[in-house]
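Quick illustration, no need to memorize.
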Amino acid sequence: SPARAWLTQLLSNDGMVDTFRHFYPSAESRFTVWNQFTNRRYVNEGSRIDYVIVDEVLMRRVQKGSSLWCGGKVDETKESVEQDSLTEAAALRAATANGQYRPASFGGEGIQAASQFTLDSQFVEPHTGMIYTPPSFSDHIGVSLLLDNGSSDGVLLQRNLTLGTDVATRKAQPHKAQTSIASFFSGNAVASSQGSNTAKRQALSTASSRFAKSTADKKKKSSIAYHFQKQKN
């Protein structure tokens, strides 16, 4: 597909890294979205379309963190858990919280409620990977990235960054040019809204006058035609 071709080119030609695949190259059936309408999450048939992609130069700052989650605690050694978490069965357990998330009824009752204990299972140790938020939240789950603070090589990352105000920097922040929701409640917004309403009323009044004049003209023409026809007969 064009999307897959674009992503492949980005990773291979632009020196970018898919952080999930970097740490889990052999993990099976790890998806980030499922068709909620047909309950596909509960059989783990989905797609992985949510990524954290990092420049390979920065990968030395990326940490793996805790093991890939597989639906709950497993009373085995860390190595065994790590190996188990790569399987398709582990991915299904993760998607359903070990079967605690139940599919919605096709009768229209909505997603079945899960216990608070099950809902809290989404909160795990910091890691690079996936965060299995409940299906009641969204048909997507979250993805995460764990960064170190630079102390591993003796250089602490600067915490207080100040963005430049040059044209190139502002262009890289298009979201700041968007109107905030708060602006709609400001004095200028109210005045603008009132002005807009006045303009709308004036336009409506003009349209009504034109319609009334047009109707009157049609009636006048119809009356003239009637009298002309009557005199002719």
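The beta strands are 16-18, 33-34, 46-47, 53-55, 62-63, 129-131, 142-144, 146-147.
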